[in-house]
Amino acid sequence: MNDLFRKALVSLKPRENKYKKFALSQNPFPFEPGVKLGNPDPRVNGTIYLRDLRKEEQDKFEKLIVPKGDRSSVNTISFIMDWATKSGRGIGKTAFLHHQKNRIMKDYGKELSGNTEVLFAIHIIPSTEGKSRKFWQFNKLIAKALIKQEIIARALWRLRYFSDVITKDVLAEIGNNPSETIGNDEWLSKQKVDVLFNLPRAVGSKLSELGINEELIDKLKRYGHSSIEFEQKFFDNLSDRYWNNDEGRLIFNDFVKLLSGSGFTKGILLVDNVEEIVVPQNTIEKRAFTNSIRYFFIDGACENSTLSFYSLLFTIHPYVQELLAPHWKASGLNRFSALSGDKADEYTIYFKPLNKEFAIPLAKEYLDYSRLSDDIKGSFEPFEPDSIEEALISSGGVPGEFLKLLHTAIEKAIEKNWEKIKPENIKSIDKSKLSKDELPPAQINMKS
Amino acid sequence: MSSRFWESPKKSFNTGLFTDLKLFSEAMEIAKEQGYVTKKILIDELPQRVKGLLFVKNQSSRGIEDLIRELRMFNWLKSYYSHQTLYNYSKFNETAKFDLTNEGSKAYDLSKNDNKAFQRLLTIKMHDCYKIPGWFINRLWIINSEGQGEIVIPAPKKEWKPKSREWDNKTWTEELKEQAKQTFNAITKVSECIFPIDFYLWLDAVEKAWIRLSNAKQKKVAKQPRSNKNEKSKEKVKTFKPRRRLASAMQEATVKLLFSNIPPNSIKKDFSNNKEPISPRIYNAWCPRLEKLELLFYTDNHPLIPGRLIFPTSVFKKNALNDEFEVLDKIKNLKDEKLCLHKPKWINIRSKFLSILKQEHQRLYNRIGSLYVSLLDVRDEVCRQLRLSASNFDIFIKIAFVESLKQETNISMSIETDVREDQRGAHRLVRRPVYIDGIPHSLIAITETLELERFSK
């Protein structure tokens, strides 16, 4: 047989679990210190999350961003910033944003807003290599996130729900997976809903009432209910030229009309890695970017500014703050959302390094997830409690590095046949620690 | 027999400021080929060269004057027409001719046939003229005898990047004090012995140096942009960089405190006269010169240390083992000890060299995360721990590399000439590369091979 058609051999023997001696099903800690959204492994996709770890930050997030009946009392633009540049990487900002997004999307902000709002949140990760540095590129990024994270589809499902075309009996059948029911034409057809004529017509007329562009209405009523189809039939066909000439109409007028018209009261845009936008920008681009932010989010002639519909949360490092601050001030944005100066505290969630109080429960949370039996849950095995503290010191309180160090410790313990992982073992693993504060002595004595 | 003072130098302390010692042999070669040299001939004929990884098209007029002056002081060049006195070197015109002396001819032949021997001859000549080579090494050992002469000439921390200041804004501010304090703390945190000066004494000296530098005559630079290429008009500089000035002030203060005629914590002068043996300006030339002569090693890029880390790779001893040291009998200190260059044999140092090489690679790898790390950073630390000169390292790394190719060691090594982005800053490009077969190399990757048992036998 030609090797082109060969399939990889699948071992029939179950793999030996080398972590069994520690009553673990796998190495409980992530191999790489960073969140990979969408990865099926809970150790790396942000699922294992210790809520209390970031309680202070979470409270401030709610205070600054989540409206509770009075939308004017929350910020349109806020920031999340690590306490020190050096500890910025792996401090847990992405995991935090991911968790806040899930909290909001769980019930569309019902619990957080005290049932006063219907919210949605999207997590936006800018492209690398400076491909998000212009404002139209940033717009494109928002649009893509709104489509891919099924916010547009959910707006369409809501319009369908309230269209009076679907009977109450069918609506009662929707259940907890609306993409397979109200978002699925095949399912609706089976329920004898006219998805070819009546339903699109009702949705279309509602969209017309909202004053949305006719061409967009056509795409929305035909494909909007499916994020995949809408992306393929609409978004993918929009050229960079279109985005360059669009002047924010799609995101800040039409989408806002659609989303608010479907009953959402606010959209929260969680923008990660803002350095990917700001650092590649030249001075003119920085100024244009901040001017556009002011126009489209604060006081420009667009639907979003009128309704204060989107709220922005920018994830920044102190270095980005330094780069952006003069332009932010020059655009007059500091009055609306202080990026620097005395008032910055009112708009910023500061991310501090881990402390002992939370590092130990965090390690336990990861260990418990991979325990082979419930009896041993809550134990530090194979770590001695002091080893966890040593790892915390060695990693400088940065959760990503802390977890990575614990991962290495488990692997070393198996390789070297350690029964327990002691603080000195952690020290021996963290060879880089030496470089942090000690000058190794000379190995030659020339006087002797 | 020991004496009370270091012998006063026969010649001026005002040594040339150029640091490429090959210029001596190259100038003599031109003199030999053409029968004589002039300043103009040397400017035109001296080959282009590289400094670190930077290309140097030609030598400055001042550099050539220094070169001729020093060659005359060594008695290797003389006036072509008459036997003028050796001391009458300070003024000569562009076309004044100089030819080789008999001693110069011999020195030139030595440089052609045995470069190492020529280098030792040059060391002795320089010591004979200036006394600095031996005295400087001796002083390093006095300053930090416990740390085998390891010292630091501080510079502001890399993280401090202040904006340019107006020329007239020369105030010694709290920010500058704070930077000095941070620098001091960073150095003493690493080791207390490498900077044995009281903080307040040093801070006071830095402030004085800052004020002196701030009141120096304003430099003139060409107008930007120059409308006519032939136009020579210049204007005064309007701004200065506080970082650079503070670095100069720190250097000036430290050199004055550590390398004055009287050693720190002592009352006895080294030289009987009252002149300072080395000025901060001349220090700039001596460090690279002594490094090239294999008397010391220095680096401005140690990750833990803001400033220049200097340590001797030579020591004054009564007796030394031949397979560890090369003895320069003619250079002695006040205790009648001879200067011994640390030149261990490969067989004696092999295991330590390989182990530290591997360990330092691992340390940098842990920090930056890529397998290829700066060979120069690895070199600096290996040399520091083993007290090796840079040229010794060049020899040993080549042997280690060949051994790894022959699978005679438990490590697999790759050494590359590529220059990574973070090595391209102007100050990094002037750093001495690692030469293997005359080619500058800058990156190294090391992995352990699995056949440990085979090699341990």
Structure report:
The complex is a heterodimer of chains A (448) and B (457). Helix content of chain A is 46%, strand content 6%. Chain A has 448 residues and is of the alpha/beta class. Chain A has a domain at 17-46 and 354-433: Helicase, Ruva Protein, domain 3 (Orthogonal Bundle), CATH 1.10.8. In chain A, helix 13 (283-299) packs across helix 15 (318-330). Chain B has three domains: 22-126, Arc Repressor Mutant, subunit A; 132-216 and 236-312, no CATH class; 346-456. Helices cover 43% and strands 16% of the residues of chain B. In chain B, strand 13 and strand 14 form a beta hairpin. The A-B interface holds A 431-432, 434-435, 437-447 and B 147-148, 150, 189-191, 194, 303-305, 311-312, 314-315, 317, 340, 342, 344, 352, 356, 359, 362-363, 366-367, 381, 384-387.
Helical coverage of chain A, percent range: 40-55%
Count of runs of 4 or more consecutive helical residues of chain A: 20
CATH architecture of the domain at 17-46 and 354-433 in chain A: Orthogonal Bundle
Overall 3D shape of chain B: globular
Structural class of chain B: alpha+beta
Would you tell me the overall average pLDDT of chain B? 85
Report the CATH topology name of the domain at 17-46 and 354-433 in chain A: Helicase, Ruva Protein, domain 3
How many individual β-strands of chain B?
19
Q: Rg of chain B from C-alpha positions?
A: 24 Å
Note the topology.
The complex is a heterodimer of chains A (448) and B (457).
Chain A: H1 55-65, E1 77-82, H2 93-107, E2 119-124, H3 135-148, H4 151-161, H5 168-172, H6 185-190, H7 198-210, H8 214-223, H9 227-233, H10 240-246, H11 249-261, E3 266-271, H12 275-278, H13 283-299, H14 303-307, E4 310-316, H15 318-330, E5 348-351, H16 356-369, H17 385-394, H18 399-415, H19 423-429, H20 432-437
Parallel strand pairs in A: 1-4, 1-5, 2-3, 3-4
Helix pairs in contact in A: 3-10, 4-11, 7-8, 8-9, 13-15, 16-17, 17-18, 17-19
Chain B: H1 22-34, H2 39-45, E1 49-51, E2 54-56, H3 61-73, E3 77-79, E4 98-100, H4 102-113, H5 115-130, H6 132-143, E5 151-154, E6 165-166, H7 174-190, H8 199-214, E7 220-222, E8 234-236, E9 239-240, H9 242-258, H10 280-292, E10 296-299, E11 307-312, E12 314-317, E13 325-332, E14 338-342, H11 346-368, E15 373-374, H12 375-386, H13 390-405, E16 411-416, H14 426-429, E17 434-436, E18 439-441, E19 443-448, H15 452-456
